[in-house]
Amino acid sequence: MQQVVPSPDKTKTFLQVREPVGVAAIITPWNFPFAMIARKVAAALASGCTCIIKPSPDTPLSAIAFANLALRIGVPHGVINVITTDANLDSVSRTICESPAVRALSFTGSTRKVLYEQCSQTIKKISLELGGNAAFVVFDSADVESAVRGLMAAKFRNAGQACISPNRIFVQSGIYATFVATLRDKMSQSLFLGDGMSQEVNTGPLINERQVGRVESLVEDAKENGAKALLGGKRAAMSSRLFYEPTLLTDVTPHMQIYKEEIFGPVVPVIKFETEE
Questions:
Q1: Nearest to 263, CA basis, from 171, 151, 147, 132
Q2: Which of 9, 122, 154, 249 has the fewest beta carbons under 10 Å from its own?
Q3: Domain end residue (candidates: 110, 129, 148)
Q4: Whether residue 205 sits in one domain with residue 269
Q5: Do the record's keywords include Nucleotide-binding (predicted)?
Q6: Residue where a domain terminates, one of 81, 110, 129
Q7: What pTM did the predictor assign?
Q8: Which entry of 19, 98, 117, 129 is annotated as an active-site residue?
Q9: Which pairs count as long-range contacts for 112-121, CB under 8 Å and 24+ apart, including other chains?
């Protein structure tokens, strides 16, 4: 693909040529396994690149299903390739990153500085969508009902297992009590745990035992250091141990681990503040 770019010099012509970079490696997480693959593969194919997909070991079947669907609609063999593994994950990722045959890497997941180092040896193009510790800030001037609705929509998508999910809820002191009471009522009235195939259910399980244990550890650390669980604070009493109760924590302070780390679970830590400073 090429196009002429306007030149400030009438005696010269600027020609912009767009070419595929080559094989694109796609490393995806487990929380939105099909959608993550679809949007990355779409960009690669539109650019004329073939793909190697390495999905999370927690959700390999989504990647396999995606590749099979691509074959069924006519995508040639070898254009979309899938590597699945639940062992030697670091060595597989290293091989992909260091391979001179791979010319671009698109990664979504927790922060991995090592990917830069591994890809630098072959000067790959890199696109990284990493983890964070997003804040949700509510000032005294806010409409409390509107703020709570916005928080509910942002926080409890996929049971809190989303990279855009807010982790630290800062509420100014003037509306703190009202905000917490409104949020507590909304959570208790509108969040229903259970089988996602049931129409009334809107909050599902966490991905695996490791993630439930991590959320438990963050909540327990907060409670041991003075936080109060106004709702939840423990695993749900259900047939599967992967359900964690939607949890509302107050009196959260910066020295708690839950303040510092991405939660990836249905837990809302609320922090009171006085001024912007």
A1: 132
A2: 9
A3: 129
A4: yes
A5: no
A6: 129
A7: 0.87
A8: 129
A9: 118/93, 118/94
